[in-house]
Specification:
alpha+beta, 43% helix
């Protein structure tokens, strides 16, 4: 599991969750980004915690019923990173 987490270079692991800050640059770009994440989350049946701010979006992923990071979180984090890349959204750090 840790090897898969380490591959997520845009994400940090802390407090039994994956965290990332995506620099959207504007509120509207943040909403567009979140809408794409919402579609991916619904398809996966797994939902992140999302915090939209100007000019970034913070995302946390954890599997609440497991109380830790699972493959569901890693898979969705990878998909969110792909969405960010497709939309030209960078991460902090």
């Amino acid at each position: 599991m840790q090897d898969r987490i380490d591959e997520l270079t845009q994400w940090q692991s802390a407090d039994d969750a994956l965290h990332a800050r995506f620099l959207t640059g504007s509120f509207v770009s943040g909403v567009t980004f979140i809408n794409a994440i919402a579609d991916a989350a619904e398809a996966a049946g797994h939902h992140p915690d999302v915090d939209l701010r100007f000019p970034h979006v913070d995302i946390s992923l954890t599997t609440h019923d497991a109380g830790s990071i699972t493959d569901k979180d890693i898979d969705l984090a990878a998909e969110i990173s792909q969405i960010a890349q497709a939309q030209g959204v960078d991460t902090e750090g």
